[in-house]
What we know:
Blueprint: H1 2-16, H2 22-39, H3 44-49, H4 61-71, H5 76-90, E1 99-105, H6 111-122, E2 133-137, H7 138-141, H8 148-165, E3 170-174, H9 188-191, E4 206-211, H10 215-227, H11 237-250, H12 260-263, E5 269-273, H13 278-291, H14 298-308, E6 309-311, E7 318-319, H15 326-333
Parallel strand pairs: 1-4, 1-5, 2-3, 3-4
Antiparallel strand pairs: 6-7
Helix pairs in contact: 1-2, 4-5, 4-6, 13-14
The structure holds adenosine-5'-triphosphate, 2-acetamido-2-deoxy-beta-D-glucopyranose (NAG) (2 copies) and magnesium ion (MG).
Adenosine-5'-triphosphate binds next to helix 6.
Amino acid sequence: MKLLSVGVVFVLVPALLPALDPLSASLFMGGAAxxxxxxxxxxxxxxxxxxxxxxKDTLNFSVVKTDLERKVFGQHLAVQLILIALSTNIHSKRPxxxxxxxxxxxxxxxxxxVSSIIAENLYQPSTSRRRFVxxxxxxxxFSHASHVHLYKEQLQDxxxxxxxxxxxxxxxxxxxxxxxxxLIDSITPFLGYHEEMDGVxxxxxxxxxxxxxxxxxxxxxxxxxxxxxxxxxxxxxxELQHLLSKxxxxxxNSGFFQSQLIQKNLIDYFIPFLPLEYEHVKQCVREELRxxxxxxxxxxxxxxxxxxxxxPSEERLYSSKGCKTVASRxxxxx
Length: 334
Ligand SMILES: Nc1ncnc2c1ncn2[C@@H]1O[C@H](COP(=O)(O)OP(=O)(O)OP(=O)(O)O)[C@@H](O)[C@H]1O
Ligand SMILES: *[C@@H]1O[C@H](CO)[C@@H](O)[C@H](O)[C@H]1NC(C)=O
Ligand SMILES: *[C@@H]1O[C@H](CO)[C@@H](O)[C@H](O)[C@H]1NC(C)=O
Ligand SMILES: [Mg+2]
């Protein structure tokens, strides 16, 4: 762009100047100077058109709150924590470190669903998501344990490159449990407390890790509460967070096994996704029927929810697949 505008000025100016009176000529030069200004580095227009989405990160907190509270079932602990986390980072002028959250829970409990609700709300819908949401799928991006060295460099380059173009970037790492040990530690430098690193400021970036590790622990605790006749609302979230961090640090099947990110306390929030109960699965089925444009058939809703709540085998309290297979079950039965 720079070269192009310089080129235009040099070609056009000598050709046109003789034909213009002094006033027009100076106006023309002024215009050229402004054009030059606009396209030189860090100019507003260049940002708008070419590189970054620094236009405005417009996380509308009340919209995210309503969205999460209305669309996500049975995850009051997670929703409550995520809202605290987001508001702390978003409402701070210049956060000291990026926001780092690690989601834990059984399959189908809403981890991916919640991260896409956050992604949808970070910018105006017109902003292309590809610019600020970066999704790393372990199975897809980091599948060969022997290439860890290469992945480490690549990951650092991507994060540095993307955050410098777009400070409010969202990085989602899914299937953390399959992440080769040690790989995630390569991003340690970006998650810490720094003003800037090599001229890049990371405080507005958001990192989300999705894990199944820790899910069994969460279920165990929820079940204990249920057995002692206490509600899932009463589970103390502080205690759960502590247990989760301990669990994934020592679990060899976790991507955070002996990870520096945990040792150095760089993960700000461990977010528990509770196993879903019969009532929550019913809500998912009802929502799916609505989405597919079918009437809310109560018998069908009950039938699917009953079939899915299968754990533990005696009490059949939770759905071991969460709401994950609801959509296909609805498709098959309607
Ligand atoms: N708590 C929930 N509230 C509402 N819908 C849910 C919830 N959990 C899951 N769903 C529905 O089920 C689908 C699958 O859930 P999702 O992909 O978020 O699970 P996940 O926790 O990421 O599972 P996995 O660990 O297998 O990746 C979602 O797209 C959503 O439609
Ligand atoms: C957030 O969205 C609500 C509802 O669309 C709107 O009334 C409110 O003005 C918005 N707030 C900001 C800060 O944009
Ligand atoms: C940003 O991340 C994506 C992966 O989501 C990568 O392909 C791209 O090269 C990165 N951009 C920069 C400028 O590093
Ligand atoms: Mg998922």
